[in-house]
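Re: weekly structure request thread

Next one in the queue (409 aa):
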Amino acid sequence: MKLADLDIIVTAPPAPGWGGRYWIIPKVTTDTGIVGYGECYASSVGPAAMKAVITDVFERHMAGENPENIELMFRRVYSSGFTQRPDLTVMGAWSGLEIACWDILGKDRDRPVHALIGGRMNDRIRAYTYLYPGPSHPLPDFWASPEMAAGVACDMVEQGYTAVKFDPAGPYTMRGGHMPSRPDIALSVAFCKAIRDAVGDRADLLFGTHGQFSTGGAIRLGRAIAPYDPLWYEEPIPPDNVNEMAKVAGAVGVPVATGERLTTKAEFAPVLRSGAATILQPALGRAGGIWEVKKIAAMAEVYNAQIAPHLYAGPVEWAANVQLAASIPNILMAETIETPFHRDLIKGSITVENGYIRVPTAPGLGIEFDEDLARAHPYTCDGLHLQMQEAPISYHGVNTFAGGAPVKT
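Done, posted below.
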C-alpha cells in the first residue's frame, strides 16, 4: 500500500463560527483506494499558501511511501531544507497529513487508531468547554459580563461538564507581553467569583489567556485570581520564553498550562525541564501529529505532567485528540466545541455524554466525514484562522476579547 493522491479541502464554519475562520482538511488516498482525512492547525499563513505547503510536503516527502512509515516520513519533513528544528508551517502541514495516514492505517486494518498506538487505556475522556455566548446573549456585551458567563457555566454543568474555560483578561496583541490594566484584572476576578459562586464545586475553572502578558503582569493577574482555585492558568506569557513562564508558575500558586502554539517534542521538552508548566496542551494538527504527541505525552509522564489536547479547530483534529487520549495514562481532559457544523461534518460519530467523550470503536479516526457538507462552505475571505490585535491595549477601561474570531451572522 502506497500514498498516491492528495486533495485539500478548506471549509469555513458557518454561524456562530466557533473554531476559527476556516479548517484545512487534507484528504489522502492510497493506491488501494483507502481514504484518510486529517486536519492542519496552522495559521501563520493564509489557506492558499498553506495548501501549497501541504502539497509540497506530500509530493516531496510522502507520495509513493507506505503510510506505515510514519517515523521515516517525519524525519524527512523535520529535516527538509537543512532545518532539523521545529518549523510551525511545515510541521502544521505534516501534522494534518500524518493524521490522515493513521486514519488510513486504521481503516486498512479495521481497527481504531488508538489500537495501533498502544491500545485503549481510557474508555471515555473527560471533556471541557469554553463558555460561548448563547443565541440570546448580546454581543459584544457577553464578553465583559460575569453574570452571563456564570449563566452559561451553569448550563454547561447541567449538561454534565465538570470543567469550563473563559478568558476575560483582554485580547492578545502583536506587541508581546504587556501589563494588564486594572479594569482587566478586576473583570477577571469578577468572572472567577461569579462562575465559582454559580457552579460551586461541581466544575473546575480553567482560566485562559493567550500569552499576552509580561512576566510581572502575569504574576500580578495570577495572584489576583488564585483565591478562586482555577485548575489552570493558561499560557500567561508568550510561549517562546519558558524560563520566564517558570517564574510565573513558581509565583502564582496555580498550575500553568501551555502548548497550543508549540510544535514537536523539541519545543515541549524545555517546558517540562524548566518547570514552566505541569499541563501540556498540544494541538495535534500543529504539534507533529498523533505519533509525535504520543512521544510528548510519554515525556510528560516522566515529569508527572498531564496532557489536555487543545482544540480551536474542526472535528477531524478533535477525533485525532480523542484517539490519542484513549491511549495514554496521563490524559487530564480534552477540549470540545459543540456546534451543529462540528457535529454534522462527522455525522455525529463522536459525542459528549454527561461531560465525557465516548471513545469511538470504528476503524481509523472513528468518524464519517461529510465531504459534500465541507465543500458546500468554502472559505472566501482573506483573514487568518486567528489574528493578533495591532493596537495596544487601553488602560482607561476594559479591553474586550471577542472569543477568538468574530461571530458570523
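The CA atoms of residues 219 and 344 lie 42 Å apart. The domain at 116-364 is CATH 3.20.20.120 (TIM Barrel).
Next request, please.
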